[in-house]
Amino acid sequence: MKVITSIKEMQQYIMTVKQSGKTVGFVPTMGYLHEGHLTLMNQAKNENDLLAVSIFVNPLQFGPNEDFDSYPRDFERDSQLAEKNGVDVLFHPSTEEMYPTKMSLAAKVHSRIDVLCGRQRNGHFDGVATVLIKLFNIVQPDRAYFGLKDAQQVAVVDGLITDFNFPITLVPVEIVREEDGLAKSSRNVNLTDQERIEAYRLFESLQMAKQAILDGERDPKVIEELIQNHILEHTSGDIDYVEIYRYPELDELTELTGKIIIAIAVKFTNVRLIDNITFDV
Ligand code: AMP
Questions:
Q1: Does residue 199 sit in the same domain as residue 105?
Q2: I need a labelling partner for 176 at 20 to 30 A (CA). Which of 138, 196, 206, 278 fits?
Q3: Do residues 112 and 36 both lie within one domain?
Q4: 179 falls within a domain
Q5: How many domains are there within the chain?
Q6: Phi, psi torsion values for 31, nearest 5 degrees
Q7: Atom 22, ligand 1: which residue's CA is nearest?
Q8: Atom in ligand 1 nearest the alpha carbon of residue 153
Q9: Strand locations in 108-258, DSSP E?
Q10: Tens digit of pLDDT for each residue in 46-68?
């Protein structure tokens, strides 16, 4: 496995790869790799000639009161995991390499952001879009893999690729979960022991909601309340949001039909967890 920290070197490496006619699959991450990331990597490995992964904790997508400093990092462990999982090239630039000076222009996301995490995390998706424009230009992938764990991110990347004409196929990948149902996340290490025991209730509430809809409930307000009550009753977390939209458009619904997303965010002591399910009604 090749580890590259310089943008120039990465671009040169990718140019040689592309000249030989090979396809490039790309998995952008912020590191502290877990099985969710590895699932994206395995799929990308199977569908492309070369697997490129980036590890970069992007300061632009963290708000002033968010967890940029406490975001978990362990490059040694990550690079071993990457190598074991067939990564061909691991791109690991420093913040100075990616942002040597204040940027003279940056992305501004207009749609699909005034709901869910976008509503509370002002500028978050602008930061995501800005770093992805840079990473797409550096890595020049044929296919880019994103987890539905961050379903709003998938919707925003879909818009980015279309609007900026990147010749890239977006591949959304299903959420990978712990045995008890908790969606895998680098941030789960910041749960207290008691919170970790409770945390599966988030997914349980989504499953209950799905069942109620399959049993005939069509009022989004009733479903939202059902989820809120379940989380309040069984966890010590504070609910940030419980929301239901059409997916991937993220339009409001008055009646549950078509492809929908039910998404939740819950704040625990040191970490805010998100989870969702998407399905056809
Ligand atoms: P992150 O390092 O958290 O930015 O995640 C990098 C990529 O892995 C993103 O596309 C995430 O959506 C995806 N990812 C993170 N956790 C999971 C999970 N539990 N299941 C599937 N994909 C995930």
A1: no
A2: 138
A3: yes
A4: no
A5: 2
A6: 80, -165
A7: 147
A8: 12
A9: 143-147, 169-173, 238-246
A10: 999 999 999 999 999 999 989 99
